[in-house]
């Protein structure tokens, strides 16, 4: 008989924090010392406790993992995308964790992409990069850049083997297959090639993990000779670099949460001085795309949900209106092609695509019949094309790739990601499931949308268990998505709901603005209103409802645990931002200064300090009857540090010791968790097994 060890108890080391005459004692601040052996010992003890408390679920975890694996075509191949004389694609191989990036030459008369239904390599395939070979000997692996030069000769790629999102940039000669001696450590996401592929632009971060410099690297030279093209000294701003679809300009994107500025360099003159499209003005955001002898500018200058303008490449500061602002229709992006433009937008909580022909034809939206769906442009690297590549999905339709004929306005389904038969041997049929939208009423009378999916025939008498998911920050929209792992819940009678709460962008910029800064609590009360609505209207009941969210959605999880612990039987908080006030008070930490325009600056403003203190989960742990909590984190996460959930769980266990709290730390991973697809499936199986246990269905 195995004797159960007690739950870990973190030592208490009082650390005083004083701001705005407010004195706070933090007894678990010591857990931020990542290099302290006691910290690692505590995390190991929490992992052991979690494994002990969930040992009875090992069989179910294996069963759920096998269901994901069985339903997934493990050897698969993406729909190839044409660029120049090649079809580019990625394929996966059964038993291998990572993708294999490939290309194959376009053959005479070949106008449609070659499709491999069984995932077999295409005849004549050239392997550009095999993630499995790169990952050998490492517990974690991620690609940052993957950028083929305009002439197809070179590949710039970058790798991360710890999860901290600091990448080493390398260049491969695709003609010889050899790696060039060029090696640049400490890079960030984003690269751009010059026209002749002699120069590569890239980005690095400062000590606070803020992307702040754009560099110019001449191929074949040492990294120490690289030149800084732009250094951003204002700590509120990030920088990025990209090449326009026309391949005529290098764009240097400079943006804070509220303000942006774009500088351009002709791609055929990479040593030229960057020219400013429009100087930054506080509160004005804009993005730039190149088309012909003009720049297209998507902006919010006097246009809350954004408008589209254009400007001559000679006088980019003079903006001419092109699409006027329409309140409630949020314009999110514009993509330029030789003969048409495509605007990505959202209206009534759904994504959409609007095509603007440049031959005098009428603008039109691409229509889809499902009431809930997500659509967006897929890989469209060619500037001159008569087709658009789209990606489409919904809560019941797997990821689907379409070509849209711009002349006939016809959609052609190229491929829908296969879902193989489940444990019952029956093929996946979307009609076996239902999706619909419901609306909850928030405390202030605001109607909050909820998307739901469930197996057909699931009862509406309050007896069905339910998982409610939320995020609600940064104007990020939780648009409908398909999940193979979710099927294991739906087939066991679980309803899955997504609460489209304020702070996200589902209903336009105002929806975001009303869930940030000193209106942040709307995010939390909206989520609680959605949970109570689901119980009140018979979708589920509080003792059958589990909440789930990650990152800023993890802050949401911690806040609603304090706000309405009676509304849930369990909470899953992944890489949760639960110690938000302490983090936002420290400008030396990654992201802090850039986040002040999202949350407010509690260092300078006592009102912001008091407001954040009133909702930050860690600050507000109380002797309540909390639902069971599963917190997941990663030791090398640079976005939300591991110590936030570690401190939170320690305080929960000390203040409300009757609760069931688990902390699981990935010791070799970053913000996104395990990097390999099989490892990710195992993590999802772990979470779903815990959820089903809360429902008594383990």
Describe this structure in words.
- The protein is of the alpha+beta class and 698 residues long.
- It contains twelve helices and 38 strands.
- The radius of gyration is 25 Å and the shape is globular.
Number of strands: 38
Q: Helical stretch count?
A: 12
Arithmetic mean pLDDT: 96
Instruction: Give the N-terminus to C-terminus distance in angstroms.
Output: 22 Å
Radius of gyration over all CA atoms, rounded: 25 Å
Large-scale geometry: globular
Largest sheet at a glance?
8 strands, mixed
Give start-end ranges of low-pLDDT stretches: none
Oligomer: single chain
Q: Numbering strands along the chain, what is their spatial order in the largest sheet? A: 31-32-34-33-35-36-37-38
Question: What is the share of helical residues?
Answer: 10-25%
* Portion in strands: 25-35%
SSE class: alpha+beta
Outline the fold blueprint:
Blueprint: E1 15-19, E2 22-26, H1 37-53, H2 58-71, E3 76-77, E4 81-83, E5 86-92, E6 100-105, E7 126-130, H3 131-135, E8 142-148, E9 154-160, E10 167-173, E11 179-193, E12 199-205, E13 211-218, E14 227-231, E15 238-243, E16 249-255, E17 260-266, E18 275-276, E19 286-291, E20 294-299, E21 307-312, E22 320-323, E23 329-336, E24 340-347, E25 350-357, E26 364-365, E27 374-377, E28 387-393, E29 400-405, E30 411-416, E31 433-441, E32 447-455, E33 466-469, H4 484-490, E34 495-499, H5 509-513, H6 521-536, E35 545-550, H7 552-563, E36 570-574, H8 580-584, H9 592-599, H10 606-615, E37 628-634, H11 643-655, E38 661-666, H12 677-694
Parallel strand pairs: 33-34, 33-35, 35-36, 36-37, 37-38
Antiparallel strand pairs: 1-2, 3-5, 4-5, 5-6, 6-7, 8-9, 9-10, 10-11, 11-12, 12-13, 13-14, 15-16, 16-17, 17-18, 19-20, 20-21, 21-22, 23-24, 24-25, 25-26, 27-28, 28-29, 29-30, 31-32, 32-34
